[in-house]
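Case study.
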Amino acid sequence: MISCGIRGDSLPANRPGMSEPAANLPLTPRYTSLSAHVVSFCRFLRQNGFPLGPAEESLALQALSQLTAFRQPEAFRLCLRATLARSKTQQQRFDVLFPQYFKELENAVDAKTKTKSQGGDPKQKQQKAPTLQALKSWLYGQNSPEDEVALAGYSAQEATHQKDFANFTDDELREVWGLVQQIARTLALQLSRRWEHTHHNLRLDLRRTIRRNLRRGGELLELAHRRPKRHRQQLLVLCDVSKSMDLYSQFLLQFSYAFQQAYRRIETFTFSTDLQRITPLLRGRDFRAALEGLQQQQGGWSGGTRIGASLASLCQHYRRLLTRQTIVIILSDGMDTGEIETLSTSMQTIHRRAGRVIWLNPLAGRPGYTPSTRGMEAALPYIDVFAAAHNVESLRRLARYLANHPRSTSPVPGGPGHNIPA
Amino acid sequence: MLEHPALANIRDLLANQGYISEPGIVMSIFLAMELQKPLLIEGPAGVGKTEIAKVMAKALDTDLIRLQCYEGLDSTHALYEWNYQQQLLYLKMEEGTSKSLAEKEQHLFHERFLMKRPLLQAITHAQAPVLLIDEVDRADEEFESFLLEVLSDWQITIPEIGTIQATHIPRVIITSNRVRELSEALRRRCLYLWIDYPDFAKELQIVRNRVPGIDAQLGEQICRFMQEVRQMRLEKVPGVAETLDWATALANLHFDHLDKDIVEATLGVVLKDWQDVRQVQLSLSELLEKTGVQAKWDE
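After joint prediction, the assembly is written out as follows.
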């Protein structure tokens, strides 16, 4: 463990996991106490999930040096905020963390000056120690238990089950995983082409045509063609992770994950009592790590289901994702414990804005199933394709459908009774 | 609040062009200019993201080069393209001559056959321009990657000619409506600025600034009404642009206050979605009460 101080002289020269800044980068010298504060503040932010490296630190210092001889805390704050926070969420986090950090710092400095003036009374020393310790542990992200409770912010009503995803036996998992991965990759490859072959509507690729015919003195004999691919699809996957669904949602999440590795135009959400955007988590390299992250993040994982409220939240906060190019895939059994009215109006909005709405229901794979739950009945008028999703085969059918019917609204080809075209 | 001379200077430059700013915006513009970093601006539609670039160009008395992004935008529309027609004509004209293939090729790919698109224009401009890359989230991820090359090295490589270095580093403003998340790589190259809907005081200042002839009471009522409307769960939340349209329309009709009939007749200026219109109409009395009561309070 490296030592960490607030003053510049005790700053460690090397930080783990960070490469040294390039030699040609004009770094502001870090020997003033101001730059030391900025560097340790950056470390504090890093501990709180900000992706900051030496480049950002030096940018912040450069920015501060542009504002020479200023004495305003507000300008200082804005300057750091503009250079260190790079998204709306980060800016909101910054607004919370900045006062936290500097308040703690103030306490620490106060404690230090007090002991100096009072000449090292042992009792005083004992009192200041916790404050400095608090700052240090903050810098390393070792939050005390009270802090963690405050940060997590779970609501008491939302049941939080620590579900273990490793319930699949390893052999099963590997087999299913391989299949799902294969399906997703094939589909991603088909959807991500930018140019497509065509027999009609030819458009000349003039640049290549000219190059190819230069050797014939510019006589155009050989023509090169291309055609821009039609608007590419955006997938929006909504996965019900309530208790009744969790076995099936794992399948779809795996599918989402594998798909996302090869094709970026996908957004994944989970919902039970509340909607959660999990796209960034699924961008990680390791699926197991992603699942662990999911488990930690989910407030009401495998709790009750409020489909209507979750979809309403989608319409409100992620309206920008619902366009004509979007295929919305909802995986749920339609057992809503919330208000049916909300479900129906949200489905109407989604149907109106999105290109297509596909509802996957694992129960639909059972013989003799009819969509007769209240929630399912309310949603049905706004669904383009209704299909089963209870095994690998149904996922394969879904992929085949998405690849072959990027525009039309014909149902998934499959066994009778599984598909109810709207 | 910001007494630093350089910051005050920027604020005044913006104010002279009729742009009402706030400390966060001023700081970001100042740093973007000083550190020669692109400024990435996000925020809901109609809060004046694009306006910042226009105002900056005016204030700095330089050209504004705009690249409007859309799905399928590629290098031939963003960087450069060869003028094929002229190249073909040139080849025809040269048919009879005895020039070697190498000579022909050298002439064929001369800069005079090169059509400069916004990004190339911006880095070869005589004076550092303001380059506005508007709604970058509409372009594909692939576009971001060649944008990155330009933004980090300030150079563009054309295989037939070579690498073209920037004569001046343009001041770059990138806007995004968050249709999709931008790549971390692009974010790292930029300074970030989030602009939200203005609060009542700022919006009123904007209205008074842009619609000088407006009645004081009407202006306040319009802004209160807009603040209330934005609290509702609407499909398309109206921005400052809508406020200004509405204020201009009502001022031109010489109204001096809002009432139910006026609002109902002109609601189409503010709301652009029929569900929203219906929703606002249903709660209009309540909305107006809030607006009116608060207005009386102030007086």
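Observations recorded in class. Chain A touches chain B through 47 residues (CB under 8 Å). DSSP finds 15 helices and eight strands in chain A. We will return to this complex in the next lecture.
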